[in-house]
Amino acid sequence: MVACRRWATLSAVACLATASTSGRAAGVDGAAIVRGSGRVKAEGSHDWRDIATADILSAGVSVQAAREQPLEMNLPDGVTITLEPSALARWMPAAKLPSEINRWTRGYHLVLEEGELEVRMPASAKGAHAFLVSTKAGTLTDWRGQLHVRVHDDSAAAAIYEGALVVGSNGQGFPVYDGAGILMRRGINPDKTRGIPATPQWEPKSGGFLMQSEGVGGPIHLAWQPVTNAASYRVELATDVAMVRVVDRTETSDTQYTTIQPSSAGRYWAHVRAVGPEGIVGAWSAPELVRVLRYQLPEGAIVARDGAIVLPDGAGLAFPDPEGLEVAFENVSLKSSVLDSDARSRGAYGPALGTPMVRREPTLYWSGLGPSVHLSDSSPMRIVHLRDPASQAEARLVVVRRELRADVELSPLSARWPHDPINVHIRVSDPSGRMDASTEPVSVDATLGLDPLVVSWTHQGSVWTGRIVPRVIPTPSVVRIVVKDCRSEEIGRGFLELEPDASPPSR
């Protein structure tokens, strides 16, 4: 009975504090903006002015966060307030507020008129801090931990993560000690039967390393496990683990999100939270690291269908931003290794997608990643392991030597000029199966001795055919066919020795 009277008294006091416009000042009572921007206007004024980081908001002003970013403010007592984008609120003077230990404590007061805000209390002893949020539906006095409030018209949805006092607009209220989801409507008792959505857990393949070709870039893909009864999810991507320098934010009903804009090389962190159907917002997940690593393909290199990077002889794979990364290598000899053909068909050769062969896990020797990676002279394939020591996130990619070749056939083998025209058949192929030989640009040079021959070539798929018209030659000679790739490197050749025939051609 005593406890009931005690909380009834605190509820009444909290309601009085909602309407209070007086308070004892102690130093500067303003809210210091530490992040974001927005606008502010004095009480009774119709004129708004812009505000930004380092401005101080005093009591008696209305403030609205910018549409595209939140507005974060610090109070003199260490309480942090974040107005979500477009949220509208009114600052009130500091006042005496009911504490968790049935005593008064001096705290600050904000009237949330529309939108969302989040309150973060500093770590301290019970009863040391309090912050009052007023809405048309009632008040919430936060004591410790965090409080998230969402207001629309005459209703409010709140997530009390640790402890707060809830008082409806009708004066009915109760304390919360261990966290609860609260629904409040004007004139109706607050409802504490709704839970707070659980914190989403990241999918195993989300985060880690993301490898992109320099100049092409690509989005960052994030995925998390579904939360029971979640209506939507909010995702933020930042360039710092504290999630202050946010570069992308979105709300989605899906359990995955792919950024629209290509990302620059470097480290990113992402977190996600669930929102219930009533608008109660759950806690943020732990930040997930995403390391974006860019590589530069040399001329003639390609990324194969299975994800392997095919390098021409002597070429290297360049990394413009290797700072802070470590590398280890496995040199693979195709003669001594059993390739997993099923893994290749699944595309399991790409960056961070698993090992491309059936073998024992090797002992890796790590060193700092340099500006480029090359193939070993003795090995046609190299598995490149990469890791970020700061997070222990690891990835791997496969580099292989370019094996494009051309088989050249000339007939008849006993051709005598000027009697016998020579037929040339060229087939371009890739023994590894990683390249589409029918689309690779090649050039064909034909010579008679040292003199060039003009040949009309027919190209269909990976096959080139041509017919060399005979001519009179005074001495034995040789027809040579040389096939080159896009880097003008020879990938195949053929020749045919010719004998002159002085007798006239048969008619």
Note the main attributes of this structure:
mainly beta, 2 helices, disordered N terminus
Oligomerization = single chain
Question: Which residues sit in consecutive blocks of at least 5 with pLDDT less than 50?
Answer: 1-27, 335-358
> What overall form do the CA principal axes indicate?
rod-shaped
Mean pLDDT: 86
Beta content comes to: over 45%
The major beta sheet can be summarized as:
17 strands, mixed
Amount of helix: under 10%
Q: In DSSP terms, counting alpha (H) and pi (I) runs of 4 or more, how many helices?
A: 2
Q: How many beta-strand runs? A: 43
Please explain how this structure is put together:
- With 507 residues, the protein is mainly beta.
- It has a 17-stranded mixed β-sheet that branches. The protein has a 6-stranded mixed β-sheet with strand order 25-26-34-33-28-31, with no helix packed on it. A 5-stranded mixed β-sheet has the order 18-24-23-20-21, with no helix packed on it.
- A hairpin with a 5-residue loop joins strand 16 (180-185) and strand 17 (191-194).
- The chain is rod-shaped and about 120 Å long.
Secondary-structure map:
Elements: H1 2-19, E1 31-35, E2 38-42, E3 49-51, E4 56-57, E5 61-65, E6 71-74, E7 80-83, E8 88-98, E9 104-120, E10 131-135, E11 138-144, E12 146-152, E13 155-160, E14 163-168, E15 173-176, E16 180-185, E17 191-194, E18 208-213, E19 221-223, E20 232-238, E21 246-252, E22 256-258, E23 266-275, E24 288-295, E25 302-303, E26 309-311, E27 316-318, E28 326-332, E29 338-339, H2 341-345, E30 357-358, E31 367-368, E32 372-374, E33 381-388, E34 393-401, E35 405-411, E36 416-417, E37 422-429, E38 443-448, E39 451-452, E40 457-460, E41 463-468, E42 477-484, E43 490-500
Parallel strand pairs: 9-10, 18-24, 26-34, 36-43
Antiparallel strand pairs: 1-4, 1-6, 2-3, 2-5, 5-8, 6-7, 7-9, 8-9, 9-12, 10-11, 11-14, 12-13, 13-16, 14-15, 16-17, 19-22, 20-21, 20-23, 23-24, 25-26, 27-32, 28-31, 28-33, 29-30, 33-34, 35-37, 37-41, 38-39, 38-42, 40-41, 42-43
